[in-house]
Here is the input.
Amino acid sequence: MKRIIVDADRCSGCRLCEAVCSFAHENVFGSSVSRVTVVKEDVFGFDMPITCWHCRRCLPMETCPSKALKRNSEGLIYAIKEECIGCGKCVKACRVGAIKLHPGMHTPLICDQCGGKPLCVRKCPTKALTYSKTRMQRPRLPGKVLEETLRKWGIIA
Amino acid sequence: MEFLGGRGFNSARLYPEVLANVGPLSPENKLMFATGPLVGTAFPLGARFNVSAKSPLTGILGDSNAGGHFAAEMKFAGYDQIIIEGRSPKPCLIFVHDRETQILDAAHLVGKDVYETTEIVRKDLDRRVQVATVGPAAENLVPYSGIFANLARPAARTGMGTVMASKNLKAIVLMGTGGVKIADSGAFWRIVEEVEEATYAHPQYWPRRVMGTTRILSLANNMGFLPTRHFTSATFEHTTEVSGERLAREYNVKNRACFSCIVPCSRIYVIREGDYAGLYGEGPEYEALSSFTARVGNSNLNLALKAVDLANKLGLDAITTAECIAWAMELHERGELSKKETDGLELNWGNGKTILELIEKIAYRKGFGDLLADGVRRAAERLGRGKEIAFHVKGLELIQADPRGLKGYGLGYAVSSRGADHLRSEPFLELSDDPDEGIEKFGIPEATLRLAHRGKGRLVRYFEDWCAVVDSLEICKNLAENMELLPLKRAAEITEVVTGFHFTKESMSEIGERIVNLERAYIVRQGITRKDDNLPQRFLKEPLPDGNSKGAVFEMELMLNEYYAERGWDSNGIPKPQKLREIHLEHVVKDLREMRSKPKRKRIRRTDIRCNTLKR
Here is the structure.
């Protein structure tokens, strides 16, 4: 399946993806309601957007006590708002940190790939986000990418 | 509507609330953070904020502007302006989380540098918070310390950090979960696409993305206005070793951007070998890079990066710090400053060890550093020497461009409402040296010739109004103005679709004019008149010794007369009542009437000063 692939080296950390995502889904510019989140480490100048990879084995889906997380025919995970009890266990269960709760409604915000034309990918000024088929089953974890990047830059041995 | 936001908001508030008798470091001074109407949206030209207060460095209007992600967070938390009044009895920090505001104890942060403070606050409160903090220099009340957001995004000029520290406030921490709504989304995306298209096709897009503003260093050297060795020369023989090109080629590993900006012009550098190997950080921009290379005669790029990093860490304004050091170096080179007076420091040009040591000494007010820690104007007064080479206007130190090679910029320094600074006007058009532009836009061919004097009044006035609008919308001046991506017409359109209020090109220009005039009124109330709208003597008398602007001097009077006439100010630089009424500043008229009556009696003295200038 097609996935949103992240290249942290290219990401400038401008968070335009967050802005356009929140506007496309909630009609308001605000990072707290975007389905994509840029992880930032100012000390190292590290930036990496994170969004749901729709992993084949989804821990939040297994953890959800009310079974509100489902997978559709295309393999995308989505939340049924009516069944969600807002416990936030999915947020903790996701190892990538791709899920956050809507600050008002306390339901999970999960990337829906904008129905096949992700806006964040289209608007990314540095092409850090691409949308294509990949065989990778799991996304790369930000902590690991940070470590690799710092090694590449020669900041840590 | 009348002031748009950002700088306009701050100036409008400062004028009635911080009066002439308020001491800059007293609890009565007010520190204002403001951001603009376009911030927080996906408008792709950055998101900035202004900090204003009465300046402890200049005693007049203090105002500085910074980018990063702080401004957007302010909007998400639901604020356009944050004003800090009074003084806390003990060190504290302010934590704003949406509608909740807490004042927390900051005893554990006292003495910590900018990087440490930001890290500790993020660890204690939340990784995602945005922090604006001050360094040890501010705590030691060095009057040119800045407020730092995102570690290396300082609002550094005019000592706003010092005002913050005088209130016993170590940091402002923001976290917002709200959002920004806009009035007309269809039109918004249409304009955004236009701007995006224009940006990506712009000839400066790639140079800026690769080098940021550091590309100016080679340019300034070629055109002959690089402030080499404290403005004693206009070209630097080591330019290629310290240029932005070299930085990009050998040091930079990645680009970064402010919130929602599509030109990631900030760069992360890593020093891989040589001195200070292993040092990394964000930046520097042209002003800081040139500060610690050409201005102090240093040809070691690694050392310059270390110096910028140190100044950031300690919370100093790089431009002013470098001017103070370069001033002492020139005095030393002339033999007017002995080793005894400088705690044994060797102050020869480009002495790296001295530069680093002095930065630290200034921040902690140790020994000779204490003399330099009050800015170059007061240092010259205290020392009783070197007054004529203390390069400041109204107490604010000159930036990194020699006004003899850039006449419009020079006029901009002289009349700017915060002192010698280019960001109030930035008439970049004169760099084109294209007379056709001058005829088309200003009706005077010389207006856009950088070495000519005529027509600069009109040029500077036009750009000042534009800059005031850009500062009030709080977007990036590099993109909006220097790359001409946001002419006033487009600014009116985008502000209209975001806010829902009606704006036109003319009303935008009027807002700019109103802000400039109000700020002028503010500094006139502090006693500023024509005599203060001047440049240091070197620029008026000594011709540039080398480079592509060789032989140029600066003729102040002609340009100043032209500028005052364009502005509708009287010959003493005070806005006329008629002009103030025209732009709806009726409440200012009365205040200035008192100021105007005084100079009449002093007219003789004014001519005296002018005669003196001529005689000297």
